[in-house]
Amino acid sequence: MITREDIGGVHIKYLYHCPRQLWLYLRGIRPEALSSTVQLGEAVHDTSYTRDSPVDLGAARIDFMDGKRWVHEVKSSARPSPADEAQGRHYCHRLHALGVEAEGAVLHYPATRRTLRHPYTDAAAQQAAADIDSVLAVAAAPISPDRLSRTRCRGCSFTDYCWTE
Ligand code: SF4
């Protein structure tokens, strides 16, 4: 069973995208290894910000941190999403737990040359803790959460799994 300390950015991302996706992932089903979307993400990481080194937090791995204690994340998508913000918040939470007082997360979208800055406020800290509780609740669910509506599944790497009758 997953513990609070095991929860990483991918768990938070799936929580926000689809609890069923999180539930499946927690049970070892990972079709996204073959997904072109993931491959694009890896390609963006390989080419966009090569001067900085990832920071390994165990379960979580952030792209890099600057000298002013801001976490930086490079996103392959063109549009910002609540999941992106939640991931950044989660990394700040993890850093604070380790005694590193992260100021917040800076999200970079090279595809659209956008940069968003999310300060790690008290409210953000509370939300990060609540997100961890939510991941644990999904993990403890005995059966998989319902599917999203078909239109919201577009592009999800679990589509074949969920929709092949
Ligand atoms: S295909 Fe749809 S229901 Fe299944 S995990 Fe993906 S988003 Fe969720």
Automatic annotation (TrEMBL):
InterPro entries: Dna2/Cas4_DUF83 (IPR022765), PDDEXK-like_dom_sf (IPR011604). It comes from the Bacteria. It holds the Pfam family Cas_Cas4. Residues 9-163 form the DUF83 domain. This is CRISPR-associated protein Cas4.
